[in-house]
Amino acid sequence: MNLGKNDSADNLPCSFVIFGATGNLASNKLLPALYHLEAAGRLAESLTIIAFARRDWTTENWREHMRETLDGKIKGSLDTPVFERFIARFSYHKGDLNDVASYRALAERLPPESACSGAVFYLAIKPAEFGAVIQNLEAVGLNKPRGLHRVVIEKPFGEDLESAQMLNRLLHQYFDEEQVYRIDHFLGKETVQNLLVFRFANTLIEPLWNRNFIDHVQITVAESIGIEDRADYYDRAGALRDMLQNHLMQLLTVVAMEPPAALEADALQDEKVKVLRSIRPIAKRAVHAHALRAQYTHGKIDGKPVVGYQQEENVEPNSITETFVAAKFYIDNWRWRGVPFFLRTGKRMPHQTSMIAIRFRHPPQQLFRETPLETIDPNWILLSIQPDESMRMEIHVKQPGLDMDTRLMQMNASFLKTDEQTLDAYETLLLDVIEGDRSLFLRFDEIEWAWRVVDPILNHWAVEREYIPTYAAGNWGPADANRLFDSDDQVWRNEL
Ligand code: BG6
């Protein structure tokens, strides 16, 4: 993003190693993003990419796999010269994540230090495997020279506060902080970055952005997909660890933070941490009032039948893993005290929608009480993140005519002009890793505080193992999600 580049920006890496190259994340996100960077001419000629995976494949098999994977996932159709250029960078490395010999062989593939500087190690693998990879990289000396090699860690970083702290200690034993890129790809989404511009480049907005004018904030990330082939990971994680602790919490910090002293990694992270530290801790006895979980059963998406979570391949038959979570948080600081932040995310909801909805307070004076306008809907600002990046403001205007009647006017602004295409978050973030820009990556204290916020909920659920409420696939989660609201006029906003 060209914010706060660190010194390593001068040391462009010339190797990019993807651990878990045949997995879901690599296929759906990393390879298409790298392809787009190739097409845009943003990858240095010297960059080689090593696909590290367990399958007994030749480079030819990999090539075929790439063609199939990219087809349908990239924007437009595969461009042959771009694809040829791209595939020529790759080599396939058959290896076992737990076997140090695989890393020794990997080290031999990397160019000697004098020939080229660093390597990026991207851990596109299950969190349970992070530790083994970090230790094995160290065992063959691939953590050194420090400052040169970079390691990218996906979320969730740990599965609770304690395990996150352990993982961080392990990382710091072998890598310097400057080498570590903890990724949360939501921070690479255009709308999220745009939120900074929207809030801090417009004098119109900032004076209203506080408890005096805002009634509550809703953050929804709804997905229509199920868990695809990720049961192995998802059944252990659940929606709270997979989405809320990281992606939704990051959105909350960007909505709520104070203006940073500068647009630099540390200054931004300082402000985000302040928000997380100000979130009112949820007492054990208050968990029920603040959070709820549910799991999808069979239903219909886009008119087509889909199975329930427990019938998905590799899911434990009586699993109580949540695929939906909703929670309410209060930020006890001067700006936000008393304003609830409602966060909600789920799989197998009617369609993919991610948005931040800001609801304003009712006007203090009921000036229109004696007119047909007795109950006036409040103003909203809606920031859509997916599928389209746009902003909508809802305000009242008088309807032309003899009566005092209003209509709600929706001011819509798409962030994109017709000839512009949106960037995928991974394109931005992978380029940032290569260029050594850490401003959109997480500092450990952000992760630590986010776990402190959600740990009480996890602990409470961990002892309630008997039962989980359900919702039929194709719905907006359980009706019970309404119980989080503080007043009758608060309702979930499902559509723009
Ligand atoms: C990932 C989660 O981090 O984000 C997935 O593990 C989820 O479960 C995905 O589907 C959503 O990201 P995006 O960018 O596709 O909306």
From TrEMBL:
Catalytic activity field: D-glucose 6-phosphate + NADP(+) = 6-phospho-D-glucono-1,5-lactone + NADPH + H(+)
Main function: Catalyzes the oxidation of glucose 6-phosphate to 6-phosphogluconolactone.
Domain of life: Bacteria
Binding site for substrate: 185, 189, 223, 242, 347
GO cellular component assignments: cytosol
GO molecular function, one term: glucose-6-phosphate dehydrogenase activity
PANTHER family: GLUCOSE-6-PHOSPHATE 1-DEHYDROGENASE (PTHR23429:SF0), GLUCOSE-6-PHOSPHATE 1-DEHYDROGENASE G6PD (PTHR23429)
Gene3D superfamilies, alphabetized: Dihydrodipicolinate Reductase, domain 2, NAD(P)-binding Rossmann-like Domain
Name of the gene encoding the protein in the UniProt record: zwf
EC numbers for this chain: 1.1.1.49
A biological-process GO annotation: glucose metabolic process
Pathway: Carbohydrate degradation; pentose phosphate pathway; D-ribulose 5-phosphate from D-glucose 6-phosphate (oxidative stage): step 1/3
Keyword presence, NADP: yes
Protein name (Swiss-Prot/TrEMBL): Glucose-6-phosphate 1-dehydrogenase
Assigned protein family: Belongs to the glucose-6-phosphate dehydrogenase family.
Active site: 247 (proton acceptor)
